[in-house]
Model the fold of this input.
Amino acid sequence: MTAPVLEARDLAKRFPVAGGFGGPKRVVHALSGVSLSVAAGETLAVVGESGCGKSTLANCLTGLMEPSGGSLLLEGADVAGILRDDPMRFRRRVQIVFQDPYASLNPRRSVGDTVADALRIHRLAPRARRRTRVAELLAEVGLAPEHLDRYPHELSGGQRQRVAIARALAVEPAVVVCDEPVSALDVSIQAQVINLLRDIQARRGVAYVFISHNLALVRHIARRIAVMYLGQVVELGDAAVLRRRMLHPYSRALFAAAPEIGRPSHDPDRPPPLSGDVPSPIDPPSGCRFHTRCPHAEARCGAEEPALRAVDDRLVRCHLAEGFSIPKEP
Amino acid sequence: MSGLALFWRRFRRNTAAVGGLVVLLLIVGAAVFGPVLHPVDPFDMLGRPTQPPSARFLLGTDVSGRDILAGLLHGARVSLVVGIVASLAATVVGLLVGAVAGYYGGVIDNLLMRATDFFLTIPSFVLAIVIVAIFQPSIFTVTAAIATVSWPSVARLVRGEFIAQRDRDYVRACRALGMRDWEIILRQILPNALPPVIVVSSLMVATAILTESGLSFLGLSDPDVVSWGYQIGVGRSVLRVAWWMSAIPGVTILVTVLAINLVGEGLNDALNPRVQQR
Amino acid sequence: MTALLQVEGLSVHFDTVRGVVRAVEDLSFAVERGQTVALVGESGSGKSTAALSLLRLLPPGAGRIAGGRVLLDGRDLLALPARDLRQVRGAAVGMIFQDPMMALNPVHTVGRQIAETLHHHLGQRGAAAEARVVELLRRVQVPAPEQRMRQYPHNLSGGMRQRVMMAMALACRPSLLIADEPTTALDVTVQAQVLSLIDELKAELGMAVLLITHDLGVVWETAQRVVVLYAGRKVEEGPVTEILTRPRHPYTAGLLRAAEWREDGGRLAEIPGSVPSPHAMPPGCAFAPRCPLADDRCRAAIPPIRPIGPAHTAACFRAEAA
Done:
């Protein structure tokens, strides 16, 4: 296995929240002990529901937010140190693409200026060559040179997202964190953008951390998948292994809940839908964080927090994981 | 269509604002060319005092026999220059303070906003009087005093705009690219925060003209220049026998302030995205 | 027997500076009693505009109904006096929206808001109304309804708010529920709960559901019939099992292929280009510029809706080739 380009080790992020009138200060545990890594040229998908911490993870991975604990390594070097001594080095290696292309482009700057900003800040093209270079980048994401002087409101959602991708690619990053890059787009446009990201990866060997709630899409695009619940990774492994069978009851319920065309209405293999809502990350449940909604929970699950451990070629955070694996042929 | 052409198309729809703009341009024209077309020193005592309008003195003379028209034209220069310069200075200071406070938040925001609140809680006209009284009255101190009492409202407004914009994804994308803070503030956020500021600053010109008039009415202005407020102050003692002496500069102030307000409202309609039409 | 809801030739137009935008054009479909019909389309397809027009709920100035009839139990809702229409809204027809926070009043408790509906349509008040509120909340599976009814919308999660909306919509036992993207803002596990709840209540109350959505997976799991819209016009209609497995309109087929996330990570079959601007609609079939099968006829004339199979219609000259 190749060395990871970007690696999170035991990453934690806590936010203080005001506790109402005179109430005690409380803490949101957005991320707790998250360890994952992405190797050069591969796609790691991070999947989970709202409140699972996936957006906080995107912020921490891209240096937009300082983690409260744990460490982040870029090509083996400590990111906190790089950000202190040579922040531009980190910015050139790690880039981000946001969910909503309406919000991620400055409405008062032309497409050409937005992409040129990236080149200018990092001194990647002399002023005279900048416009040509921007046109090349736009061509790479499927936009014509005439888009250079357009403003975001003159473009469609898909075109805007292409501009955002071009801006991220301008600095030739090693990793691009894609935070729900297609969920604001129509299905027919989603396919265009996903294909574009795939082609770019094949051509440039860039690694993606692909954050999404669309499970079918994650299975399509990822080489490895991390499932998150309430700020923790609950299952992490090769997409091929997870496709065969998920072991954590939450991963199983999550993938079963996604509607799927062609599935018979009463599939006996389909776990029943989960009951209740995701608990608040302010006071996460004791023990296993999923035990309040888990159909298999035992007394031990509420008392003792399971560790992320290797079972059947993947990492899983569940005391009972062995019980869900496919029984070996005798 | 370019942004400017689109802006003009929206602005043009507002008849009152266009009317205000025409009146304002006339006043500016009078201030610029008036003393050339009517070359009379407003301090020269040319005739009998307290004359009503006549062929020789189109708007009459004041208690010292000075030409009121000449005073009005010179006063226009003073009022407009003081109004515009004070508003510009207040806008620049307000933008700086508001942008820094809104963008960085936290302790910096707290300190800057407490300072802003200090100015906001003191009645602005009283504060302006105090400042002018401490330093010698002159065009410069009057302008500075008006700017000093005007910037806090701009700062408040700009801070709000920056707080609304600073966590938008386009700003985060710039941070992820490693853009420096000053460039994010000036080049990225400021153009988005500017439209309401332009409106407030244009309306501030009207307030500044009123404040300047008030100060010179009280005799707290530069003794070496004629201004509208000073003319009203001069005419005040003979109000019952020569009402026009106060009324002429008074109506001029009213019309000017009204015109600026109409233009400001028009700018608001044309720049405010909420009332933009398809 | 006539259908519960019969929409005939509905057209909704927007007057803009740059001309008339035909947001919905000549839309016809029917919803039978106890059936779930899905109105499917991407942004700009006119699906939400159509749904709002059924009860004349378009905000003033946002569009006008240019023609057509909306028959509910034989009564034309578009011709009804405003007074009578108010009795239809919320009583015979319930409605839930994508964002319940927009539809709920933030300064009143949810219990009070449900009670208001009861008072307005049924004249119930006092202890009887309160008991009914608790019963309604229990029916939409809100845990501890006695406590929840005293809470404000912001105290509730998105899924709970959508349940409260459903309790309000169902208060008068409507014969039709219009659900406009009811689960788009919800997480998948909560979406599954809400969808199965709609299904249960539908069976229990014998009501019909008109589901507006962009998600074909949701359509598969909840609806019996599906109406596919593109650029304001119906392009295909038929039974869900038929349309989603053997689509005959190239747009429907393209949509299904674009969402076929195969697990080998191969290239997705994309639909090239994007939806035409409402100000520059092509003269013929609106989908022709993006269609792999389009020929000169498609670019010249708008294809009429025609039967393709049993209860299956499509607006395509080349449906046989798809």
